[in-house]
Every structure is written in C-alpha cells, then in structure tokens.
Design a protein that fits this description.
By secondary structure, the chain is low in regular secondary structure. The protein has 2 helices and no strands. 8% of the residues are buried. It has one domain (1-52).
Length: 66
C-alpha cells in the first residue's frame, strides 16, 4: 500500500518531485514519484506523513523533496 495516499486519500500530492522546466516548483505542479510502501497491516498503523518541501525555489538542493 501507498502509505501517504492511505493517510491523505482526498488530497492532490503531496508532491515529491518537480521538473526544472516551466516554474513547476513555484506553481507546485509536481509528481508523486517517491513512495513509502508497506503491507496493509503496517500501513494501517501509520498515523501521519509529510513531504519536506523547500520554502522557495532558491532554497532547493535537488529536484526531489526530502
């Protein structure tokens, strides 16, 4: 199971990757390509999840979130 999606079923994102083209980071037009995957039993025990996104484009150190 995708743990983040099970905790946030009605939310777009949270995104973990943004292309360098077209101001994607500034517009939060990202993709969810980094997943936390678990068995159904373990995923059911998860209480929260987050993606640490830089505050601004200049503060990014990668095209991926942490």
């Amino acid at each position: 199971m995708d743990v983040v999606r099970s905790l946030m079923p009605d939310r777009e994102g949270p995104y973990s990757w943004w292309t360098y083209r077209g101001r994607a980071f500034d517009n939060d037009a990202g993709w969810r390509i980094d997943y936390q995957v678990a068995t159904p039993g373990l995923a059911a025990r998860a209480e929260w999840a987050r993606v640490e996104r830089a505050e601004e484009h200049a503060a990014r150190w990668s095209d991926h979130a942490r």
